[in-house]
Structure formats: C-alpha cells, structure tokens
Amino acid sequence: MDPTQEPMTISFGANLVQAPYRVTVLERIRVVVDALPVEGIAPDRLDAILAGERRPTSLDLALIAEATGVTTMWLLHGRRCSRPVSAV
Fold first, then answer.
1. Helix, strand or coil for residue 5?
2. Mean pLDDT over all residues of the chain?
3. Distance (Å, rounded) from C-alpha 74 to C-alpha 9?
4. Which pTM does this prediction carry?
5. Which residues of 48-70 are buried (b: 16+ CB within 10 A; e: fewer)?
6. Which CATH fold would you assign to the domain 21-77?
7. Tens digit of pLDDT for each residue in 31-68?
8. 3-class DSSP state for residue 80?
C-alpha cells in the first residue's frame, strides 16, 4: 500500500472494515462480502468469484454493491465517487 494514502474505513453497522486503496477488485469484494451477506447472487456463483474461478459481471458487481452498501466505483477502483451517480 502507498504510505501516502490512508485506508478507507467502511462502516457496516457496528462493524468497521479497513480496506487499502491498492488492492484488487477481488480483494475489495472479499472485504465487503466477509462483512455482510450478499443476496441476489447464487452461492455457487459467489463462491466461484471469491475463489478467482469466475470474473464478476457488471450485474454481479451491482448486486454486491447494493447488498453491502458500497458503490461499484469503489469495488472497481477503490475510490469513492466525487459526485452522486444516478441512472436516468
């Protein structure tokens, strides 16, 4: 991790999770999935993603983000959105 960047703290109710910025998409998925259950994705599909046997689709990322309260931007890039994003 770059020492000039501080880890991002994600709050899941009473649980706080530290996630460094310089990690992979898979590692960020693991951080949030370990903290909260993900509904909407078949367990075998999620297991394959976490094992690195399957790449997550955009729908998988959206479902994981929605279930865990993070953004797809954070899952993909480790950054918060600078402005609110909405679908029109």
1. coil
2. 76
3. 12
4. 0.66
5. ebeeeeeebeeebbebbbebbeb
6. 434 Repressor (Amino-terminal Domain) (1.10.260)
7. 888 888 888 889 999 999 999 999 999 999 999 999 98
8. coil
Residue 80's nearest CA partner among 21, 27, 11 is: 21
Q: Which of 25-29, 41-45, 55-59, 75-79 has the lowest mean pLDDT?
A: 75-79
Which is nearest to 67 in space by CA: 43, 42, 26, 32?
32
DSSP tag of 56: P
d(CA 48, CA 81): 28
Which tokens go with 82? 């600078």
Torsion region of 76: left, alpha or beta (phi above 0 gives left; psi -120 to 50 gives alpha) = alpha
Whole-number pLDDT of residue 51: 92
Q: By three-state DSSP, how is residue 84 classified?
A: coil
